[in-house]
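Hi team,

Filling in the usual template for the complex we talked about on Friday. All components are listed, including any nucleic acid strands or ligand strings, so the model treats them as one assembly.

SUBMITTER: L.P.
PURPOSE: interface mapping
COMPONENTS: two
RESIDUES: 584
SEQUENCES:
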Amino acid sequence: MAAGAPKQRPGVIGAIWPHLILLPASLVMLLPIAWLVVSAFKSADDFFSSLFFPVDETGALALDRLTLDNFRRLFDDVGIASAIANSFFLSCTLAIFASLACAAAGYALARLRFRGAAPLMVVTLALLVVPPPLLLAPTYELFHRLGLLDNYLAILLPGLAPAFGVFLFRQATIQSVPRELLEAARIDGMGEIGIFANIALPLLRPMVGAFAMITFLMMWNNFIVPQVLLHSPEKMPLAVAVANMKGVYYQDYGMQMAATLLSVAPVLVLFLMLQRDFVSGLASGAVKG
Amino acid sequence: MKTSAHIHRRERRAAWALVAPFAIVTAVFIFYPLYRSIVLAFSQTFGPGATEPAGWLNFRMTLTDPLFWVALRNTALFTLGSLFIQLPLALILASFLNRPDLRGRTVYRLVMFMPQLVGLVFAAMIGGVFFAKRVGAVNQILHATIGLDLDFPWLDQHVTISLILIALWLYVGFNMVYFLAALQTVDRSLVEAARIDGANPAQRFIHVVIPSIRPVLTFVVLLSFIGSMQLFELPYVMLNGAGTENRGLTVVMYLYQQAFVAGDLGMASAVGWLLGLALIAAAALQMLVARKEAA
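RESULT (copied from the run log):
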């Protein structure tokens, strides 16, 4: 520390001027979210007469005009509660199963000796370049043949073990699951599956957390797959249900913003609670990969 | 000897059990659809199920369809905007954040990273109102500050720039985090040596910092290119389709319309392969460049 310390102390100007860029940039980044939050509580009239909080005829702040009406109509008339439940169900289910499947495969590819390991690894890397839209039409055809259109299995099954997850867990295993520990457990007579579940998985916990959260997010924000493979309006997750509101309530800005706020709030709250693990997990997988 | 062979057999069996979910899911839901997409691309299809071989017909139809070229032009313009506006901004923000003594670093990083979580569909919902005439925040702010017309038609006439701005908001922080991680690995003594040799900050950045982070730089460019070329949800949800005069039509939206509006899975697969090959070529190019630099 001391040896590498800079020779010249940055002055007051040096300490302040990055903030002159970063502070306005941060405000710009926050503006749409702040605006979204306020808009969700505004009536249609106030939408036209004020940018942020509603004002009365004299131009004075009129906070009493903020209303829960948009949310009330979302639950009563649009039935958004079921879309919220659908989104939670799909995202949680996929996050749990995809984390387990990817952790198992990534661990096996990194630490177990079997003849398929090398070719599987090549396949995993090759799959990273397949663009998802290419699979859209044939996936639809496949589930049509299987009779699984409008069934949640069609949404969940293809996402169960994404190649990039297997790759991330392979890297994490190499980094944080020492071979000696596994050998010791083998000598103690522990079974291979037991070793994975009781020794490797706990060591992989940070990556499990980060990957579960990424998977949750990707499912929560996924639009095209449920839009194509589901038909019944009552089965739709938020992403599709909210997007479809634009067609029906295209002038009802307050309600659109209320629905959007309901959709992004859980994700933002979850992220703020877990952000430390999330960002570091993401960065470790991304940069060292 | 026997025990060791026994252990190995057990290990092999366990390995296959652990990779089984991945292997099965990949075979059924990736490889089989990939194979079918090749068959479909060379077939004339009538909804799912009825096909008949058609040679290169779908590719010819796609490449001679003026609408496909509109889609490609829109997508390419958006991609150029993402690469040449968003990535330099992300790099600049990252270099401002890359000061160990900076106060509030974590908060800045958090704030810039956050929009990413909103996701494309919900960003499109926000964008649709944010850029709307009269009620939209963009027009209200620009009207109050520079007197722009409250009815400025962002979403009718200036779709691509609106999309670039929304994508910038969504992803600049994500790319910034990559760049920041790369900048933190730059050897300080190299930068210091350049400073002593009289290089100014801009010269130090271009001649010392950029070459040291080049692997991450090319990787981020590739990721950004691949993501941008697949633009779909943002315009589709924001404009409720392709928008006025197809100004929001993209390649993936063209594919989607072929598959699920026209019901032509063959055409959609041909478009998918044209896109896929372009992206794979870009990835191969990046690998080639990376390998050449490593050597």
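MY TAKE: Residues 12-67 of chain A form one domain. Confidence is low (pLDDT under 50) at residues 1-8, 285-289 of chain A.

Thanks, L.
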